[in-house]
C-alpha cells in the first residue's frame, strides 16, 4: 500500500495477493491437452484437435474407402497409408470423446 509502483506491476493483484485480470481481459477458454501421439494420429487422418468421436469415425470410413485395395482395383500402392490410417483410428477411438 505504501510502496512505490512506478511500472504498475502490482496493480493487477487484489488485496489477497491473487491475480486479478486487468480491464478488458477475457477469460481464457480451457482446452484439453493434446499429446504428441494424438496430434500425430489426428494429422494422419487430416483432422483438427477439436474433432469429436463421430467426426473421427466418419473420416475413417471415408479414408478406408479411398485407400483400400478393393476400392482401387487391387492396387496395393496405398496400402502403407491405409495401415497408418487404421493405426491412427484405433488410437483415436480410445482417447477422443464424443460430441456431448
CATH topology of one domain: Helix Hairpins
Q: Regions with pLDDT < 50 over 5+ consecutive residues?
A: none
Radius of gyration: 24 Å
Can you say what the CATH homologous superfamily of one domain is? DnaJ domain
Shape from CA axes? elongated
The helix content, as a percent range, equals 40-55%
CATH architecture heading of one domain: Orthogonal Bundle
The secondary-structure element order is: HHH
Which structural class fits the helix and strand makeup?
A: mainly alpha
| Biggest β-sheet strands, sense, barrel | none
Beta fraction: under 5%
Give the integer mean of the pLDDT values: 81
First-to-last CA distance: 48 Å
* Count of individual helical segments: 3
In a few lines, what is going on in this structure?
With 100 residues, this protein is mostly helical. Helices cover 42% and strands 0% of the residues. The chain has a domain at 36-95: Orthogonal Bundle (Helix Hairpins).
What does this structure look like?
There is one protein chain. This protein is an all-alpha fold. It is built from three helices and no strands. 11% of the residues are buried. The model has no long low-confidence stretch (mean pLDDT 81).
Amino acid at each position: 500500500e505504501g510502496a512505490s509502483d512506478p511500472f504498475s506491476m502490482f496493480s493487477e493483484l487484489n488485496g489477497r495477493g491473487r491475480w486479478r485480470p486487468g480491464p478488458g481481459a477475457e477469460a481464457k477458454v480451457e482446452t484439453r491437452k493434446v499429446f504428441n501421439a494424438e496430434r500425430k494420429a489426428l494429422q494422419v487422418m487430416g483432422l483438427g484437435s477439436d474433432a469429436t468421436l463421430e467426426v473421427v469415425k466418419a473420416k475413417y470410413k471415408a479414408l478406408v474407402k479411398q485407400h483400400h485395395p478393393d476400392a482401387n482395383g487391387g492396387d496395393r500402392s496405398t496400402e502403407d497409408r491405409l495401415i497408418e490410417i487404421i493405426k491412427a483410428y484405433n488410437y483415436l477411438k480410445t482417447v477422443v470423446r464424443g460430441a456431448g
